[in-house]
What does this fold into?
Amino acid sequence: MPAYKVIDADGHIDPAPVCDWNRYVRAPYGAAADKLAKAAYDRSGDLTTTRRGGFDAKARLADMDTEGIDVSVLFGGSMGLSTGMAGDDKTFGQALAEGYNNWLHDFCSVSPNRLKGAALIDLDDIDAACREARRAVSELGAAGIVMRPFHKTLTVDDPYFFPLYEECEKLDVPLLVHGPGEFRKYLQERYHTHFRRHSLDFPVSIMMATQDMICGGVFEKFKKLRVAMLEGSAGWVPWFLDRLDEHFEKLPHHVPHISEEPTELAHRYIKEGRLFWSCEPDEKYLPFILEEMGDSSIIYASDYPHWDAIYPNSVRAISERTELSPKARKKILNENAVKLFGGHI
Ligand SMILES: [Zn+2]
It folds into this structure.
């Protein structure tokens, strides 16, 4: 195991099997939250966690020891990535976000130095989202704010989200863009197997968010904003940025908020420690990504305990990978995440 701290920028939990939402979600929404969360968990079936560490903090810490993870930043499953399950009822959505963050805080308190929460916010009301982001960071110790790759009809560069980006800058926490987005609904209408949907929805959603953040000028407007693009793999990054460069050359008037090629901008944001992608630990093209984007661009993510994670070998998939230099391995497993999360981990 490495001699430095291994930071997992994206692990998962799911409170559904154990949580009594009446305790965590404000009245009168407890029973409705309970029903929704359990139904979502049941629908996911064997695609969600089968390990206790997904909902039991002590079991999680034991599995982190086995894997060699020192610190894990935790995202939800059926609840925790989006309050969309509350439909158009904004107040219910806000109650779900608060309740989930309260539960997450209790989960992390078992070992607050090793378990870190990624806070859920309800994006339907941006002022309420900012308030909850403030509460989650300053009162509950959250290490970052979860953002969807897009929200309903809005892309992530829409000015609607700007108050949230300003808030992240003030709180000095990263924006954690986690797939999938609502693109999944489109895929669900066309494909009938998880194979066909899952192969596309995470990377394509994160590609869209990458384009919108860079070409929409979000990093130019918010000079201190740090962003991680999560669970979308990374092999496509150099190719996609090159494709955006070609469009920039031909159609610069369509992207008035930027004045340099997207690849050049991405390199600058990476150098400034403001833009990262998580990789699959065993991603074949990792050496190529590092060659093209540099070793400051990629962070390690375990994806534990999901069906497609490679527990207990995900740290080793990087730490023992000889095509990567020891310096690059340390950057991926430790230094890049330290830059991303700052003082919050
Ligand atoms: Zn994830």
Remarks:
- The mean pLDDT is 93.
- The longest strand covers residues 7-12.
- Strands lie at 7-12, 71-75, 115-119, 144-147, 150-151, 154-155, 175-178, 227-230, 275-278, 298-299.
